[in-house]
TrEMBL record:
Keyword terms, alphabetized: Calcium, Cell adhesion, Cell membrane, Disulfide bond, EGF-like domain, Glycoprotein, Integrin, Magnesium, Membrane, Metal-binding, Repeat, Signal, Transmembrane, Transmembrane helix
Residues that span the membrane, as ranges: 673-699
Protein name in UniProt: Integrin beta
Organism this protein belongs to: Xiphophorus maculatus
Upper classification of the organism: Eukaryota, Metazoa, Chordata, Craniata, Vertebrata
Bias type Basic and acidic residues, positions: 487-504
Highest taxon of the lineage: Eukaryota
Family assignment from sequence similarity: Belongs to the integrin beta chain family.
Length: 760
């Protein structure tokens, strides 16, 4: 088993950009993500993504290539594929609510996934008020631990008294370790095998990988008695076998006596670093550890046969057995173990100068408090499938606690932490077969977990027939019950291919095979592939690209082309799917449709009143908008309390009043238009008269004699004879010439009568 946790926040700007791109290419992007010329089967289609579906209907896009059967479900439906003939990437999440739990729920979940799909579920972890506690001491008994081992003999009673503040049910256990009893980890000299301390003239225990000494017990006196009998041992190299012993203490539950309902603490005490995996090669041990219990008479028998466990294996076994590790190390080794505990979920590290009782008690109590206040989960997937799945964990912390990475700290007893867990599948197995995978959700330090059973569907069933290619039989398989494939009924009539083998490939009244857009194979049209789109139909007479274009996109990018007509998406209509069915774009600021003076057509207002204009028919320069209610009777607007007869009378009255007012408004409007017309006519006539008068005045001034004051319309006489003035009735002009008195000369001229205002 391999575990990991994964969660990564995205920037808001990136989300906005992605949302814009998705909105701009929603209709075409999904189809392009599903369709590809390389798709030849249902399994290939469903691996393109969870949004894709495969149509196994026999007569779907008759004659088109198989890859056209893979598309978005909506596009398949528009092109004629019925829903019951669609193989979908359905994701299912089933929760078993029958199993009761006090801390972790639910206990079992079943998920069905396909490649590219994902599913989410929630796991709740509740903190109880008080827990029973199991504490197992795993102590390094090498020679350097002699002084520290003496201090441990008084820990039991003091720790029991201190833990009564947090639990009333404390059980203790004990085990010891040194290192693998093989060279070069220990001396193999015959005198040092049984007594590795013989050089110091003292008696000590033989080296051992792990020795289980005392099973879990609530008898503190027994724990103290066993501790007092412990003796040290010795080895050669510096590192010890602590991690090897820790795994045995975790997996040997029956021997150690871990209680199912208790919080389990495993305290490892050492003053040296620990061996890691592959270190056993120095002793010729190359067999990896199997992660199982190998105790015989409480002695670890696999120490000389298997390598030290890897940190990944140890981490899995600690989580699997709900054990919370605590490391109490000497300060010189603190930095080494500080890097180690980062790889073990929930591990706590304590730095101690000397392993004195007060220091150990504080370390255990603090670890237990942290165990209760910090809630985290770890998700593990089987090794065989870990590369094909991914997991994301997001905690929802209760009030008063804080979220840190994928955990909540500061959780109080009685509070519940929720974890939103998402699991997704990358791919199928190499052979493409379905598989069952087991995933575990471990709340760290808890003795309960959630088991997730994942069913990976990589194969297609394609309904009861199981024919995913849509063809039950090949057209060239010969006869069927004495009737050839070419002679079977087709739309109510028989076609005999004896005279023309390609007759079944010609439409009625046509002499061209497959409408000139395909080839006839075995009496059946196989349509050609076009870069413009799909050619299909029994005679290749249909396609999905001979439809109107809108702004350079087929069907405006809001539909699919079926038999030369656009089948629009929901919310759009029109020949090119350019008209929205929603009328929200025609609503004016007051919420009315086209201001109540028009109709919404193709998302735009068409004003029914010729006097109105504007996007919402809101402009009307020659009319006044009466916003007051036409009905002055308040009861007409609040007729709920009236009888039926009174309400009908009120509605009739209001209707008549509104109709009369509308008629009056129309008359007033018509009279105003007539008056305006007459005023314009009168003004035009007046202007014409003024222009005529001015033009005649100018003409008179041009034709009169040039010269000062004498230029007027009257008659003028010389100063020699003013005795004769012609009247308007006489047109006689007399010229006289002075001569000697005795010979006067006089001439008279008669002039016809002329208008008074004519000029000479």
């Amino acid at each position: 088993m391999t575990s990991w946790q994964r969660s990564r926040p995205l920037r808001v700007l990136l989300l906005c950009c992605v949302a814009f791109v998705v909105c701009a290419e929603a209709s075409s992007g999904g189809a392009r993500a599903c369709w590809s010329p390389s798709i030849t089967s249902c399994a290939d289609c469903l691996q393109r993504g969870p949004q894709c579906s495969w149509c196994f209907q026999e007569d779907y896009l008759h004659g088109a290539e198989q890859s056209r059967r893979c598309d978005l479900p909506d596009n398949l439906r528009r092109r004629g594929c019925r829903p019951e003939f669609m193989e979908r990437s359905d994701v299912k999440v089933e929760v078993d609510a029958t199993l009761n739990s006090t801390q972790v729920s639910p206990r079992e979940i079943s998920i069905t996934l396909r490649p590219g799909s994902e599913a989410s579920f929630v796991v709740a972890v509740k903190q109880l008020e008080r827990y029973p506690v199991d504490l197992y001491y795993l102590v390094d008994v090498s020679a350097s631990m002699q002084e520290n081992l003496d201090h441990l003999k008084t820990v039991g009673v003091a720790l029991s008294l201190r833990m009564t503040q947090h639990t009333s049910d404390l059980w203790l256990g004990f085990g010891s370790f040194v290192d693998k009893p093989v060279s070069p980890f220990m001396s193999v000299h015959p005198s040092k095998i049984d007594n590795p301390c013989s050089d110091y003239h003292i008696r000590c225990r033989p080296a051992h990988g792990f020795h289980h000494v005392l099973s879990m017990t609530g008898n503190i006196s027994e724990f103290t008695r066993v501790m007092k009998r412990q003796r040290i041992s010795a080895n050669v190299d510096t590192p010890e076998g602590g991690l090897d012993a820790m795994l045995q203490a975790a997996v040997c539950q029956r021997a150690v006596g871990w209680r199912p309902e208790a919080k389990r603490l495993l305290l490892l005490m050492t003053d040296q670093p620990s061996h890691l995996a592959l270190d056993s090669k120095l002793a010729g041990i190359v067999t990896p550890h199997d992660g199982r219990c190998h105790l015989d008479n409480n002695v670890y028998t696999g120490s000389t046969k298997m390598d030290h466990p890897s940190l990944g294996l140890l981490s899995d076994k600690l989580l699997e057995n709900h054990i919370y590790p605590i490391f109490a190390v000497e300060k010189m080794q603190y930095q080494w173990y500080e890097e180690l505990v980062k790889l073990l979920p929930g591990a706590i590290l304590g730095k101690l100068g000397l392993f004195q009782a007060p220091n150990l008690i504080d370390l255990v109590v603090d670890a237990y408090k942290k165990l209760l206040s910090e809630v985290a989960v770890s998700v593990s997937v089987e090794d065989k499938a870990v590369s094909r799945y991914w997991v994301s964990v997001s905690p929802l912390c209760p009030r008063g606690s804080t979220a840190k990475d994928q955990s909540c700290s500061g959780v109080q007893p009685g509070q519940t932490v929720y974890f939103n867990i998402t699991v997704g599948q990358h791919s199928c197995t190499d052979d493409g077969e379905d598989e069952d995978v087991r995933m575990l959700v471990h709340p760290v330090g808890y003795n309960e977990s959630t088991v997730v059973s994942i069913r990976s569907k990589c194969q297609c069933k394609c309904g009861p027939t199981g024919h995913c290619d849509g063809n039950d039989q090949s057209p060239c398989r010969g006869s069927h019950h004495g009737v050839s494939q070419e002679q079977r009924p087709d739309h109510g009539h028989m076609k005999d291919s004896s005279s023309d083998p390609n007759r079944n490939c010609k439409a009625d009244g046509s002499n061209v095979n497959c409408s000139g857009r395909g080839v006839c194979e075995c009496g059946k049209c196989v349509c050609e592939q076009s870069r413009l789109g799909t050619v299909y139909g029994k005679y290749c007479e249909m396609d999905d690209f001979s439809c109107p274009y809108e702004k350079g996109q087929l069907c405006g990018g809001r539909g699919v082309c079926v038999s030369g007509e656009c089948v629009c998406e929901v919310g759009w209509t029109g020949d090119s799917c350019s008209c929205p069915t929603s009328k929200t774009s025609c609503q004016s600021a007051d919420g009315m449709l086209c201001s109540g003076c028009g109709e919404c057509a193709c998302g735009k207002c068409v004003c029914t009143d010729p006097q109105r204009s504007g996007d919402f028919c809101e402009r009307c320069p020659t009319c006044q908008v009466i916003r007051k209610s036409s009905c002055k009777n308040v009861d007409c607007h609040h007729s709920q309390g009236l009888s039926q007869k009174e309400a009908e009378l009120c509605n009739t009255t209001c209707s008549l009043h509104i109709g009369s007012k509308a008629d009056f408004s129309e008359r007033v409007s018509s009279g105003r238009l007539v008056g305006t017309f007459l005023c314009v006519c009168a003004l035009t006539v007046l202007c014409g008269l003024v222009v005529v008068a001015l033009s005649r005045l100018l003409l008179q001034r041009r034709v009169m004699p040039r010269g000062g004051a004498g230029a007027d319309l009257g008659y003028h006489c010389s100063g020699k004879d003013r005795s004769y003035f012609p009247t308007t009735n006489e047109k006689t002009v007399t010229y006289r010439r002075d001569r000697p008195p005795d010979q006067p000369v006089e001439m008279h001229i008669q002039v016809p009568k002329m208008p008074f205002d004519d000029h000479w």
